[in-house]
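Troubleshooting: if your tokenizer reports a length mismatch, compare your output against this known-good record of 184 residues.
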Amino acid sequence: MSTVNGLPAHILLNHFIVVLGPLTAILAIICALWPAARRRLIWLVLLLAVVTLVLTPVTANAGAWLSGSGLVGTKAPVLATHEKLGETLVYIVASLVAAIALLAALHIRLARGRTVKFTLHALVAVLVIAAAVATLVQTYRIGDSGARATWGNVASARSKDPSRSGTELLCHSAAVQRAFSGMR
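Known-good structure output:
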């Protein structure tokens, strides 16, 4: 998938990852620590994690297409950093899915009236929290590097001359629209 309605698919898909990844991670932590929330939310959290896992490589592939399309100009070091970080997210989200699946198995066992040792419960909770924190941190790092790759020049030009208005940003937006209008 390269474009959606004339826009690069990566630009649209990354919003799903930026929302679903942290939302899933936060809900997973809540489910790991709060049994009442786990009883109500575990299946939703597992579904969100799987959807995020499916969308992550699709988004990365769309980003690779965008990078190779020539629309982004020369490959700056910050863009290379963004690409490298983006390639790792699928593994981190996969670990989150695995940890949530363990939590769901623990939930099923408890729902059937079986006992679970505290050490096993604590181990699963630690795994969920670790995978969730890793997802939060890596999503932030990828988003930050992508924003710097996209908007870094605009922000740095404005910070060098604070008297300049927001017109540069509007002009940049118009330039982006002109560039993508030729793709339709």
